[in-house]
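Sat 14:20. Reprocessing the chain from the morning session after the first attempt stalled halfway. Input below, unchanged.
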Amino acid sequence: MPEEDVLELKFRLIDGSDIGPFRYSPASTVAMLKERIVAEWPKDKKGGPKSANDIKLINAGKILENNKTVGQCRTPFGELPKGVITMHAVVQMSLTKAKTEKKIDEAPKKNVCSCTIL
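Finished this time. Tokens:
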């Protein structure tokens, strides 16, 4: 793989800390990037992702799709000089997981109705 094709990426977390930089070929998929983030996630941070599906990668204001390659996502920053590219990694649990966890956390509510007629 030619040296000029390799991209250096780092991933910025919500608290401002970074994971990386790592070197990737343009053929690497966004799903592969997410797997690397899960593997490299700092163990001392709470709220980390349980799987790659819990991560949203954002670059240039756009959420990157899992099936896209780094080369396909490259267009917004293709004109920039060589250097490390920063992408934002946001942990967001999938809606089905969030709903089931919310149902578990909620105590059963009793329907209590009272009417007063004067």
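The mean pLDDT is 76.
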